[in-house]
Amino acid sequence: xxxxxxxxxxxxxxxxxxxxxxxxxxxxxxxxxxxxxxxxxxxxxxxxxxxxxxxxxxxxxxxxxxxxxxxxxxxxxxxxxxxxxxxxxxx
Length: 91
Known about the structure:
CATH topology of the largest domain: HU Protein, Chain A
CATH superfamily of the largest domain: IHF-like DNA-binding proteins
Mean pLDDT: 95
Number of strands: 5
Number of domains: 2
Shape: elongated
Radius of gyration: 19 Å
Number of helices: 3
Strand content: 25-35%
CATH class of the largest domain: Few Secondary Structures
Helix content: 40-55%
Strand order of the largest sheet: 1-2-5
Order of helices and strands: HHEEEEEH
Low-confidence stretches: none
């Protein structure tokens, strides 16, 4: 399902206009991104959680040249599915 299909489905299920759902979705992405950038977490209990993980610097290998390289430390977004969501998917 692509973004526009998702917007149409949510609009139909909620009885809202596609424009309203698109604005809510954009705001949701903006709020989640802003919170993660500031170092926080976003949890929707039972459904999902987003947080930022700190990845330490590590040694790696360039697959093309086989040369040893150092991969710098970085922050990475992490998504965790909630228990209720997992159970719904598993059936």
